[in-house]
Amino acid sequence: VGDVALYRTDRLVARCARTARPVLVPHVSAHDLPRIARDEHAARLLGEAGVHSYLAVPLIARSQVLGTLDLKRARNPVPFGQDDVLLASELAAHAAVSIDNARWYQRQRHAALALQRHLLPQHPPDAPGLDIAYRYQPAGAADETGGDWFDVIPLTGDRTALVVGDVMGSGINAAATMGQLRATARALGRLGLDPATVLTHLDAATADLGEAMATCVYAVYDPHTRLCHIATAGHLPPVHLRAGRPPRLVQLTTAVPLGVGGVPFHTTAFTLDEGDELVLYTDGLVETRDQDIDTRLLTLTDLLAGPHRPIEETCDLLLSALRRPDTHDDVALLIARAHA
């Protein structure tokens, strides 16, 4: 099982695939066995098993032959007939559609992943006053990939913008929308705008895309003042870690997702001292179907309350502890630690 079986072009199964027509041998003779089996050894085994009737039907989807359904009868003394050809052809048609759909979904997944990985930063730039760690993991399902992103944007005056967002929806369309929003956010950030103004313009840009909606959190850190200015658009709250106290969810003014329009965004400022950490993430890290979001956020902060560790290890810890193998959402995770 699982091994590749090679058939020469003169075999009956090859003729079935080549002509896209059923091949029926009601009464198999010793002369027929070499044309049915892939080699002499297999022909001998078929003969010993008492194979006396043979049928092959093509697997066809969208006018393309994907393979063949190869049937041999040994124990049942009744030979294959035209009724069997019709039944096998019907089964093969359903199987071909399922195989074709699976291949299409896999191609879509690969395309969305390739597009998203191309659009996400491969090696974020050095950020003055910050150590950066990040992870991206796609969804487990073939059609659920595509909308999460993160970014690290160098700004003037040694400042750095940290961005995490999540386009609603999935697949290659969500990945393409993500790419447009990420590029827009980078352009707006480099204009020196405060986070709330960036989100206001990003909201308008999202509305211009039609049906698109996204959540986003946008933060700007200044290593000289150690102030972090941050605004959110319907996104889950970041976590602020500081030695000597429990991790806390950053309290931000509630705002609607990007693309809704008509609702103002607000910037909040707090100090990110040396050794402090800021954890930004998308909902795929914490949301599940069997636990409420408050319970999952508490689990997140409990994990972060553990012993001090390198932020790369923290990324791995959060993903291994919170991420479930059957999840239907992708995850973007970005952690920044302030240093001297």
UniProtKB/TrEMBL annotation:
Gene3D superfamilies: 3.30.450.40, PPM-type phosphatase domain (3.60.40.10)
Coiled coil: none
Cited InterPro entries: Bact_Sigma-Reg, GAF, GAF-like_dom_sf, PPM-type-like_dom_sf, PPM-type_phosphatase-like_dom
Listed Pfam families: GAF (PF01590), SpoIIE (PF07228)
Keyword set includes Metal-binding: yes
MF-aspect GO terms: ATP binding; kinase activity; metal ion binding; protein serine/threonine phosphatase activity
Catalyses which reaction(s): O-phospho-L-seryl-[protein] + H2O = L-seryl-[protein] + phosphate
Enzyme class: hydrolase
Superkingdom, natural source: Bacteria
SUPFAM superfamilies recorded: GAF domain-like, PP2C-like
Domain called PPM-type phosphatase: residue spans: 131-338
Keyword tags: ATP-binding, Hydrolase, Kinase, Magnesium, Manganese, Metal-binding, Nucleotide-binding, Phosphoprotein, Protein phosphatase, Transferase
PROSITE patterns: PPM_2
EC number, as in UniProt: 3.1.3.16
Keyword Nucleotide-binding set for record: yes
Matches recorded under PANTHER family: STAGE II SPORULATION PROTEIN E, STAGE II SPORULATION PROTEIN E-RELATED
Function text: Primarily acts as an independent SigF regulator that is sensitive to the osmosensory signal, mediating the cross talk of PknD with the SigF regulon. Possesses both phosphatase and kinase activities. The kinase domain functions as a classic anti-sigma factor-like kinase to phosphorylate the anti-anti-sigma factor domain at the canonical regulatory site, and the phosphatase domain antagonizes this activity.
Stated name of the protein: protein-serine/threonine phosphatase
